[in-house]
Design goal:
Layout: H1 12-32, E1 44-54, H2 64-71, E2 76-78, E3 84-88, E4 92-93, H3 98-119, E5 123-125, H4 147-160, E6 164-168, E7 174-178, E8 190-196, H5 201-217, E9 224-225, E10 228-229, H6 235-242, E11 258-259, H7 270-279, H8 292-297, H9 305-311, E12 315-316, E13 318-323, E14 329-334, H10 343-361, H11 364-370, H12 373-386, E15 391-396, E16 400-405, H13 406-423, H14 428-444, H15 448-463, H16 465-482
Parallel strand pairs: 11-12
Antiparallel strand pairs: 1-3, 1-4, 1-5, 1-8, 2-3, 6-7, 8-14, 9-10, 13-14, 15-16
Length: 491
């Protein structure tokens, strides 16, 4: 993140100074984006993978510090939960065999972390939400001993002024109150980073917003939370509620910090950065010695560390990223995909999402004219809730807006994804192989979430809910270790 946080208590002057610096950062970024040479360079694809640490019974183990120490590998960092780790991968060039390059890194990193975890009697689980997590696993003790996380927790609680209310509908509706942000520790994801030229940012970002719904529908892997059967991708609604800074009195007046956005990007990435600063209070008011406007005036590229820090606390599902540490550029961070079930499944999700995004971006103006933003917003949440059964609104060239199920739409988008990947120069053979995994899921009607639900339904009559969830996770981990795609797993 750049700026070092060595304390967790801040006063009004700290927040005022941070707000002033954020305004300066926005002005500097606006001037920087006027430079034709800024952000020029070949596209790259990077990723961050979050994972769970569990014991032999599949229960969460709060040992991320111990596993990180055993790994002794700078790719791994603690996540919010003590039973979570994050793995940061190096960006790979998009033209060529980028998926096999990314897959090689994922497999190497997983081999490393599994070996390290075994040294402290711990196992690794790649799953959107750990099904064996229970209410008493949450609370302050679940949060990693990292100043940034404690500052986030303290500031969000102060802004909210009341307990967090988690209310999620589903087969077993859930309603709980929590005094801290620990429910967010239940979520793990695979986050993609696509480097894009600033001049192309708006059209690629808008295309990503449209493509995310069908990609999420076919990638669901989080059907339970706290032993309740909820959404196909429960992470989406849980994250929104777990860090919601809005108390009941202002909920209708202010936007949540986790969201899909408020409209299409019209001209540049600057719109999203401005919105992030104008809509949301700073949570971590740490400032640097940099004078961003002076650096821009001198022809330099400022780090804008305060803006980067603030953007890290505005959780758009597709988020703009400014990076000036090595080769200054802009990225789109795709945050909606869950972790797991296997490396092959995750790469297939990446290929489908990236391919559809790049294909739609070629004609982005038509798509944003044809699909109102509020329909794209609704598509996203319907996909998260209902997965392959979600009914989405989708434009057709000769029929206007149509309503179509994910299962009907996704096969039509596979050749679209293939064209998008081919146009980007991505290896055709590996693209075809990964997109065939997506086709297989739809044909079998089995995502990770569907497999979990069906397996739980098979086990629960004999074992009861709690033991069935543990038995289901043991089966899941056994299948996942083979790297066979989830649509081929038996129930």
């Amino acid at each position: 993140m750049g700026l070092q946080l060595d304390r967790a208590d801040f006063g009004p002057l700290d927040y005022a100074r941070m707000s002033e610096r954020l305004d300066q950062c926005l002005q500097a970024l606006g001037r920087l984006l006027e430079r034709p040479e800024f952000g020029a360079g070949a596209p790259t694809l990077g990723a961050e993978l979050e994972l769970f640490l569990v014991d032999d019974a599949g229960r969460p183990l709060p040992r991320n510090a111990e596993v990180q120490a055993a790994a002794c590998d700078e790719r791994f960092t603690p996540e919010l939960g003590r039973y979570n780790l994050e793995c940061n991968l190096s960006p790979v060039a998009v033209p060529g065999p980028c998926f096999s390059a990314l897959g090689g890194q994922l497999r190497d990193a997983l081999a490393t972390v599994r070996h390290a975890a075994a040294q402290v009697d711990t196992r690794v689980a790649l799953i959107g939400i750990l099904p064996t997590l229970r209410r008493d696993d949450l609370g302050p003790a679940a949060i990693s001993d990292v100043p940034r996380y404690w500052t986030l927790d303290r500031r969000l609680r102060a802004l909210r002024g009341e307990p967090y209310r988690i209310h999620i509908n589903g087969a077993d509706p859930l309603m709980i109150d929590c005094d801290d942000i620990s429910p967010e520790t239940a979520n793990t994801s695979l986050q993609l980073h696509l480097r894009v030229p600033p001049a192309d940012f708006a059209r690629i970002y808008n295309a990503a917003q449209i493509a995310t719904a069908p990609a999420l529908a076919v990638a669901g892997n989080s059907p339970t939370f706290l032993e309740h059967r909820l959404w196909e991708e429960t992470r989406i609604v849980l994250f929104k509620q777990a860090v919601d800074q809005r108390g009941r009195a202002v909920r209708r007046l202010r936007a949540p910090r986790v969201g899909f956005g408020t409209g299409w990007v019209r001209r540049s990435a600057l719109e999203l950065f401005v919105e992030g600063v104008r809509r949301y209070e700073p949570l971590i008011p740490v400032t640097s010695d940099e004078h961003p406007l002076e650096r821009v005036a001198a022809g330099d590229v400022p780090l804008l560390e305060e803006l980067r820090l603030h953007q890290g606390t505005v959780w758009l599902w597709n988020r703009p990223v400014y990076d000036a540490f090595t080769d200054p550029h802009l990225r789109i961070e795709f945050r909606a995909l869950p972790a797991g079930p296997t490396v092959t499944d995750m790469l297939a999700n990446v290929a489908f999402l990236l391919g559809v995004t790049l294909a739609l971006a070629a004609d982005a103006e038509w798509w944003t004219d044809a699909l109102p933003f509020d329909r794209a917003h609704d598509n996203f949440y319907r996909a998260a809730q209902s997965g392959l059964d979600a009914v989405l609104t989708w434009p057709a060239p000769d029929a206007g807006l149509t309503r179509v199920t994910s299962c009907e739409l996704i096969p039509r988008l596979l050749p679209v994804a293939r064209r998008g990947l081919a146009a980007a120069g991505i290896d055709g053979a590996e693209s075809a192989e990964l997109l065939q995994v997506i086709a297989g899921r739809v044909a079998a009607r089995q995502t990770g979430a569907v497999w979990q639900r069906h397996t739980l339904a098979d086990l629960e009559p004999r074992l009861g809910r709690r033991q069935a969830l543990m038995a289901m996770l043991r089966r899941y981990l056994k299948h996942a270790h083979t790297d066979r795609p989830v649509h081929t797993w038996p129930v």
